[in-house]
Specification:
Layout (H helix, E strand, L loop, with lengths): L2 H6 L41 H15 L18 H8 L1 H5 L8 E4 H10 L1 E4 L2 E6 L4 E7 L4 H4 L7 E6 L6 E2 H17 L7 E7 L5 E7 L1 E4 L9 E6 L2 E7 L8 H14 L4 E5 L8 H10 L8 E7 L8 E4 L11 E6 L6 H13 L3 E5 L7 E8 L4 E11 L18 E3 L14 H10 L23 E3 L7 H5 L5
Parallel strand pairs: 11-12, 12-15, 15-16, 16-19
Antiparallel strand pairs: 1-18, 2-9, 3-4, 3-20, 4-5, 5-6, 5-7, 7-8, 10-11, 13-14, 13-18, 17-18
Helix pairs in contact: 2-3, 8-9, 9-10
């Protein structure tokens, strides 16, 4: 075990929850989208008034925030009605420099731990995207054993109308016209079990239906049993396909091992890793995926974790470790889009020094999040403060991809997101282009500045539908409802 991981393996007194990394033994916050050691807890008062919570937030950020010179400590907390509004004001200088785009936030310990430990969430169990030109909303992914898929909502389904009953249905087009994406979000209601909506929809096959669907608790499967792992025969060559939905569910590591055992048993050496909507998650899962890609790299550098100067003693280097299911891929095509962030980018960036021209980014540019959060808990208030506290770099110390991975990948291939074709289908646009790259066929380079984003971007045609204030699951799984 590398030193960085050893430091993360114990129970974390402050429940480090970093977007993309290891966590406490209790399943609490681990580093998300990065790595790092166990910080010394900042004392936390038991009071939960807004003022107390704001004071605690400021004390933590003064000590741990990665960009101390970009923290506006002169902000008056009494000018802000919520902790999150206060946080947004504190980090505005960093946001203005594109270094903290809503990466620092307050969330629920209980909700996030449930997501990390078992993939537990509540809702319809679908991921939604919207057409920015024609005001249309589509299901771009549906999760198994959840109400949405059970009612017939799957990839490519268009939501036509939403209401609390058949008598008060509002068309999606009218909602978008009157209030934009937020009006649709509001119409769908809160993500609480039992919340019911009547939805009229049209499937990818053209069948129109109307269903009353009740939201419920469900366990989100990181790798779909329907399409998550495939082995394609591309002209007599075996190509492994992996669709990883999220890094935030700790059980993803065991599923990854099972997937790579299939690749290993079939002699696969070329891979398509589909991370197109993957907003990141636990660093420990990212490291597992790295290890499974590094059968020939054991003991070499996977990534570096770097904190602010005052916390440099917490810096660490993660090495590739031995995994019995690991393979040594000769070529990898990473599928990404504007919703691809954090731990997804960490893994892809870490493979560039080793594969060079034999790796490519397929799709559009990614989000651009080369930093990760630690999570600081106040149990009495159910508060977990996710603070940008470290950056991650690859073996060659490359990690300044705030504008997305397209700027650092040796090869990029522009590809569409064919939401009317299921994942794992060789005819789906991005998968087809990925196969072209692996076969040595030419492609058109990515030139866009961000692709599919969770917030509006000029010129975008399709974006993930995301609330202004996402819940714990939506932070890690953008577009989830």
């Amino acid at each position: 075990m590398s030193m960085g991981r050893a430091m993360l393996s114990g129970t974390l007194a402050v429940a480090l929850a970093a977007c993309g990394g290891g966590g406490s033994g209790s399943g609490g916050g681990g580093p998300i989208a990065g790595g790092g050691g166990t910080p010394t807890p900042t004392p936390t008062p038991a009071q939960c008034s807004l003022a107390d919570r704001q004071d605690w937030t400021l004390s933590v950020m003064n000590e741990w925030y990665l960009f101390p010179d970009l923290l506006d400590t002169g902000v008056n907390p009494s000018d802000h009605d919520t902790v999150q509004d206060y946080i947004d004001a504190l980090v505005k200088p960093a946001r203005d420099q594109n270094k903290d785009r809503f990466f620092t936030y307050i969330t629920s310990i209980e909700e996030e731990n449930a997501l990390i430990n078992s993939g537990s969430s509540a809702g319809f169990g679908i991921r939604l995207g919207y057409d920015t030109v024609n005001n249309r909303v589509f299901v771009i992914e549906a999760f198994e054993d959840a109400p949405g898929l059970d009612a017939g909502l799957d990839r490519g389904t268009e939501l036509l109308s939403i209401g609390t009953s058949s008598t008060n249905l509002q068309t999606v087009s009218s909602l978008m016209a009157s209030g934009g994406p937020q009006a649709v979000i509001d119409a769908l209601g809160p993500s609480d079990p039992g919340v019911t909506r009547v939805i009229q929809f049209r499937t990818a096959g053209g069948v129109t239906s109307e269903q009353s669907i009740a939201k419920a608790d469900y366990a989100l499967d990181p790798i779909s049993d329907r399409y998550g792992v495939k082995i394609f025969d591309d002209g007599g060559k075996k190509v492994g396909y992996l669709n990883l939905r999220t890094f935030i569910v700790s059980g993803a590591s065991s599923q990854l091992r099972d997937a790579f055992q299939q690749f290993k048993d079939q002699g696969v050496t070329e891979l398509i890793i589909d991370l197109r909507y993957n907003g990141g998650g636990l660093v420990s899962v990212a490291e597992t995926l790295g290890d499974l890609l590094g059968a020939d790299k054991v003991g070499q550098v996977f990534s570096h974790t770097v904190l602010r100067d005052s916390k440099s003693s917490e810096n660490s280097t993660e090495l590739f470790e031995s995994e019995s299911s690991a393979i040594a891929p000769t070529k990898i095509a990473f599928i990404g889009r504007g919703g691809t962030a954090s731990a997804s980018e960490l893994v892809a960036n870490s493979m560039i020094p080793y594969l060079g021209a034999n790796t490519a980014l397929i799709g559009t540019n990614t989000y651009g999040k080369p930093v990760g959060q630690y999570g600081f808990d106040r149990d009495a208030c159910d508060d977990r403060l996710r603070v940008i506290a470290f950056k991650t770099t690859n073996r060659d110390d490359q990690g300044e991809y705030f504008d997305g991975l397209a700027s650092v990948f040796p090869n990029t291939c522009s590809a569409g997101d064919d939401i009317f074709t299921q994942f794992g289908d060789v005819n789906e646009s991005s998968i087809k282009v990925a196969l072209d790259f692996l076969a040595g066929r030419s492609c058109t380079s990515i030139t866009d500045a961000g692709g599919l984003r969770t917030t509006a971007s000029a010129g975008a045609r399709q974006e993930l539908l995301q609330p202004e204030r996402p819940n714990a699951a939506q932070h890690r799984i953008p577009g989830l409802f």
